[in-house]
C-alpha cells in the first residue's frame, strides 16, 4: 500500500489515501426527499438496499447521501470518507487523540468503518467497502 507523507520531517506520520468523499445529509424521510433530489435536480438514485440511507449521483460524478439515522451508531455523520486502509486510518486517529464516536466495526451491509469527531465537532464516517 502506497502512502503519502504528511510531514516529511516525521517519517512515522502518514496520510490515509482517500478514495471518495460523500456528504451525508440528515433527512426525516428519504421518500419525501426523492422529488427534490431525483425529480427537481435530476440526480440518479442509487439503491443501496438499506431503508435508512440512499445515494444520489450527478452526471459529473458528485454524490450526496440522504440519511434518516445511522443504523448502528448513535450519531449521524455529516460526511463519509472511503479510504484505502480503514484499520490504518483508525490507528492514526487514535494516535492523534481524536474522539472515536463509533468503534471500528465490520457492518452487515458490507463496510468496515468507524466514526470520528473532527476538532471542530463534526462527525465523519471513515470506511472501506469489503472486497
Automatic annotation (TrEMBL):
InterPro entries attached to this UniProt entry: Glyas_Bleomycin-R_OHBP_Dase (IPR029068), Glyas_Fos-R_dOase_dom (IPR004360), VOC_core (IPR037523)
Domain VOC intervals: 17-129
Gene3D superfamilies for this protein: 2,3-Dihydroxybiphenyl 1,2-Dioxygenase, domain 1
Pfam families recorded: Glyoxalase
Protein's UniProt name: Glyoxalase
Source species taxonomy: Bacteria, Bacillati, Actinomycetota, Actinomycetes, Micrococcales
